[in-house]
Amino acid sequence: MKAYFVTTIFMFVFIRTFFAQVGIGTATPDNSAMLEVASNSKGFLLPRMTSIQRLAVTAPQAGLQVYDTNTNSIWYFNGSYWVDTQAMASIGDVKSGIQTADHNGWIKLDGRLLSSLSAAQQIKASTLGLSSNLPNASEAYLVQNGGGMGIVSGANTTTIAQTNLPNVSFTGIAASAGNHTHVIDPAAVNSSSDGNHAHTTDPAAINTTAGGDHNHQIGRRLNEDNGAYDPGNGHAWENSAVTTDRSYVGSFNTSTNGNHTHVVDVPSTTSSTNGTHAHIVDIAATTSTTDGTHLHSVSVSSGGSGIPINVAPKSLSVNMFIYLGL
């Protein structure tokens, strides 16, 4: 009878334990909990292990929790990977911080090779579409700009082009009113060869040479002393009658021994019209009138030198990290 009673009590406790809620430190556990641990002086202690031991758990179930002694935080398995409850991040989350290096699964975005990460982190980076290198977020801002995920683009400076300037007119006055003169001195040119004309030539008078042998017919006067005609040495009288009035009564020819010169005046002549040739014509310089009012294009310099403008606003210097877990 005693044995039956003990057995009955054991079965009652077993059935209650199997089908009912369990309270530790309380006789009335909360209806929403299968197990409630109640204490005002003690806590609930999870299994404690290193990161290596946690990652070595075989086929962890979603919701499994452990305390990682390397990160000093509670981790749970979400069905795909371990999540650090302290970090409260998912793979691919990005944050800023003043930490200088990787920490608790957060990897600094500094452009390094993915091969420098752990094997597990490389796999997670690959699932995010990263390849070869981490993005380099140095001097970059996080923004949803429509570009590829994890791609750093753009610049912190810009250069303003003329089309970016305000639509205004720079006014100014050109030096002096427009009236002025221009001196034009055309270069000398050759006239065309179509210039047939004649030239009149009047040579100067010249003396003939001394080789001019010829005769002269000379009349003689009667010799008053003896009443005879004196022909003179070297001359012969012609058959002429002698007159008594003592005038010239005849003539005679001199001998050929009479070389002398004659002045010859060559008459002027006109050349034929076959004289085609060209003339160099030097056109005289001329000055335009002062009625020359006109416009001048005036170029007003902006005074700039095209130095790029820094468009980065005032900022706090931080590092950017991506969560890839441990």
Structure commentary:
Among the domains are: 2-37, no CATH class; 48-156 and 319-323, no CATH class. With 326 residues, it is mainly beta. The strands form 9 sheets. A 4-stranded mixed sheet has the order 3-4-5-6. Strands 7-21-8 form a 3-stranded antiparallel sheet, with no helix packed on it. It is rod-shaped. The model is unreliable at 1-9, 221-227 and 232-249 (pLDDT under 50). It is 10% helix and 18% strand. It has 3 helices and 21 strands. The protein has helices spanning 2-19, 51-55, 119-127, and strands at 22-24, 35-37, 48-49, 65-68, 73-77, 82-84, 94-97, 106-108, 157-158, 183-184, 189-190, 200-201, 206-207, 217-219, 251-253, 263-264, 269-270, 280-281, 286-287, 309-310, 319-323.
Helix content: under 10%
Low-confidence stretches: 1-9, 221-227, 232-249
Which structural class matches the secondary elements?
A: mainly beta
Query: What is the CA-atom radius of gyration, in angstroms?
Result: 69 Å
Strand order of the largest sheet: 3-4-5-6
Categorize the overall geometry.
Answer: rod-shaped
Biggest β-sheet, characterized? 4 strands, mixed
Order of helices and strands: HEEEHEEEEEHEEEEEEEEEEEEE
Portion in strands: 15-25%
The number of helical elements comes to 3
What would the average pLDDT be, to the nearest integer?
Answer: 76
- Number of β-strand runs: 21
End-to-end distance: 61 Å
